[in-house]
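Good day; I would like, with your permission, to put a structural problem before you. What I wish to show you is a protein chain and, alongside it, a tokenised description of its three-dimensional fold. Please examine both parts with care and let me know of anything in them that strikes you as inconsistent. Thank you for your consideration; the sequence and its tokens are set out here:

***
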Amino acid sequence: MIPHPFFPFLFTCLAVVFLNGCASSANSAYRDYTVAVGAAYPNEANLAQDRVNKYLARLKPEKREKIAQNEYLAVEATEVPVSEVPGLASRIPGQTGGLTDRASQMTKFIMIFDAKTGKPVGNEGYISVDTPPKGTLGIFGGYTAVYIGNGK
């Protein structure tokens, strides 16, 4: 027989397990690709804006409708060597070659744009070692965005 004082504890544990099992998030299916944040240089911001403008101008109507279902676009502004991002080389899992291999690895500087207006949401960019496939959703700095790569 189970002691009477144990019932409230058992009920609480079951409630916690049940409620955690039912919790969900709209973003839970998408990976956060951000490893660092930085301000965009003017030339990076201009290049990213040009890429978004060209990308949006080339879209076919059916693709434009699909893009419009999402609030944000993520575009690659530039590539940056890992060695130029302070503290990043030590945070990336190494291959057999060690630190020198990681330092020569390239990262992408991603900027976020409003999908409807084509304007940047801010002057920040997000460093990413890996990115989702083009045309799919990923999280960059808290923004769930369609990744368009370099816009080509």
